[in-house]
Specification:
- The protein is mostly beta strands and 197 residues long.
- Helix content is 2%, strand content 57%.
């Protein structure tokens, strides 16, 4: 149903990284080093890091889906080994679903004006290389999905305010994703955003 491709990035060249703006949601966690090349987006750091990245695409319709394709996690046993997907304005304003490979769980992280909204409890999930995590927005509701073994399954949903429903505020957000780890390297192999009227 999402007929319009707003953004599709396969991270083919080093200059692709210039399309992304890094935001720092937590002062105690650094912004990692990021790079793109040969089909891989890489984030890495020696200490705890967390960045939400706003990309080149904007939502062109009232209904939209933001997706990332998983590459590799740090696997170092740290508490944070996490990817996020959704829409990002800045470090204090983003709507996202996340997957934590250390805990094998998924959930939501929605921050508006610096305040994290209350969201449902986490759900069990295990993602590996080539799997995808997606977030759909429709009429003020966001629904998280995961694709494993070539099949999509619905994870959970929650309501948000009209931030993505109102054209004026929606235009401030970009398709994006986030990467968070205790240390080490996380990679993605694709990011895509689609919308519908």
């Amino acid at each position: 149903m999402f007929s319009t491709i707003d953004v599709a990035d396969r991270f083919a060249a080093p200059e692709n990284v210039q399309q992304y703006v890094s935001h720092q949601p937590e002062e105690r966690e650094i912004v990692p080093s990021i790079a793109t090349d040969n089909g891989v987006f890489t984030a890495s750091g020696p200490t705890p890091y967390f960045t939400m990245l706003s990309g080149p695409g904007r939502i062109s319709g009232t209904t939209a889906v933001s997706m990332v394709t998983v590459g590799a996690f740090t696997g170092n046993g740290g508490r944070q080994d996490t990817v996020y997907v959704g829409w990002v304005k800045d470090g204090n304003n983003y709507v996202s679903a996340w997957y934590n490979d250390a805990e094998r769980t998924a959930g939501f992280s929605i921050r508006l004006d610096g305040r994290l909204l209350k969201t449902p409890e986490t759900t069990p999930l295990e993602l590996g290389k080539g799997d995808r995590l997606a977030l759909v927005h429709r009429d003020g509701t966001v629904t998280a999905y995961a694709q494993t073994g070539g099949r999509w399954r619905r994870l959970q949903e929650t309501t948000i305010d009209g931030v993505l429903h109102r054209p004026m505020t929606r235009s401030e957000y970009r398709y994006g994703f986030g990467l968070r780890a205790s240390s080490g390297t996380i990679t993605l192999t694709g990011a895509e955003g689609r919308s519908a009227p």
